[in-house]
Design a protein that fits this description.
- The protein is an alpha+beta fold.
- The chain has a 7-stranded antiparallel sheet with strand order 2-1-5-6-4-7-3.
- It has 2 domains: 122 residues, no CATH class; 104 residues, Alpha-Beta Plaits (2-Layer Sandwich), CATH 3.30.70.
Length: 238
C-alpha cells in the first residue's frame, strides 16, 4: 500500500477502532477467552521516536494464555513483535516507569512531545512506550540475552524519565510509579518466516485448531483493511 506511510494519525486511529470492535474480539474468543473479561483500547504507542495508533489489551491472564493471545494478535495483524507485560510482578527483571498526566490531557501529540523530551534528556529513552488512560508507560525491555535495547541500566533509565517529567512543561506530568516488571516480546520475522511460523509454533502448529481459526479471522481482517485502504486511497500509486 504505497500511501499507507502517509496516513494521518487520526485515520490510523479510526481504522484501529474498527479493528478493535470487529476483529480483536474474534481473536480473543478463538483463544477460549471471554472477550468481555478483557479491555482493549486504541491509544498512542511509540517506537523509535515515532508515535502511531496502537491497540493495547489488558486483562488478568496467566503467562501462557497471555503469550498465546499476543501471538494470535501478532499472527493476524502480521506484527514482527508483540509485547506482553505484567507491571505488578515485583519479581520481574524489566525496569519500568509510569508517567501520569492530568486527567484527559494525554493525547498523541502530548505523548510524542514527552517521548522526544525523554530521549533528549537521555539517549536511549526514545525506544518505545505504551499508553493506558492518562499514563504513559516506559519499559526497559531486553533482548534474548537480557541486555536492554535502550543501552541503559534500569537505574539510568528510570532516572532519565524522572528528570524528563520534572522538566516537561504543560500538561505537567509526574512519575506515578516505577520498579521492576515482567515483560517479553512474542514475535515472528515475516521476511524469513513468511507464513508466520514463529507464531504458529507457539499456537499449536500450522494444522492446529487455533491457527485454522486465526486464518479465517485473518481473511476478515484483510477484507477490512482492503476496504479501508480503497476508501482512504492508501493503495494508490503515486
Amino acid at each position: 500500500m504505497p500511501q499507507l506511510a502517509q496516513a494521518s494519525y487520526d485515520d490510523r486511529a479510526t481504522f484501529s477502532a474498527e479493528v478493535s470492535k470487529d476483529i480483536v474480539p474474534k481473536i480473543i474468543t478463538a483463544n477460549g477467552i471471554d472477550a468481555a473479561t478483557l479491555r482493549t483500547e486504541v491509544t498512542p504507542g511509540g517506537y523509535l521516536l515515532k508515535t502511531n495508533a496502537s491497540l493495547q489489551t489488558e486483562g488478568d491472564l496467566d503467562d501462557a494464555a497471555a503469550d498465546r493471545l499476543a501471538g494470535s494478535l501478532g499472527y493476524v495483524f502480521r506484527q514482527y513483535r508483540v509485547l506482553t507485560s505484567r507491571l505488578n510482578d515485583t519479581t520481574g527483571k524489566t525496569g519500568f516507569v509510569v508517567v501520569r498526566f492530568p486527567q484527559g490531557s494525554l493525547n498523541a501529540t502530548v505523548a510524542q512531545r514527552f517521548f522526544e523530551a525523554a530521549d533528549a534528556t537521555k539517549k536511549g529513552l526514545g525506544g518505545g512506550y505504551a499508553v493506558f488512560g492518562d499514563e504513559q508507560i516506559f519499559l526497559n525491555a531486553t533482548n534474548s540475552e537480557g541486555k536492554p535495547y535502550s543501552g541503559l541500566d534500569d537505574a539510568s533509565f528510570q532516572d532519565g524519565l524522572r528528570r524528563a517529567a520534572v522538566s516537561f512543561g504543560s500538561p505537567k506530568p509526574m512519575v506515578s510509579s516505577l520498579g521492576n516488571a515482567t515483560a517479553r516480546f512474542i514475535g515472528n520475522d515475516w521476511q524469513r518466516s513468511t507464513r508466520g511460523e514463529g507464531y504458529q509454533t507457539l499456537l499449536g502448529g500450522s494444522d492446529g485448531e487455533l491457527v485454522r481459526k486465526l486464518d479465517e479471522i485473518s481473511r476478515c481482517y484483510a477484507f477490512l483493511l482492503a476496504k479501508t485502504a480503497d476508501g482512504k486511497g492508501w493503495a494508490k500509486d503515486e
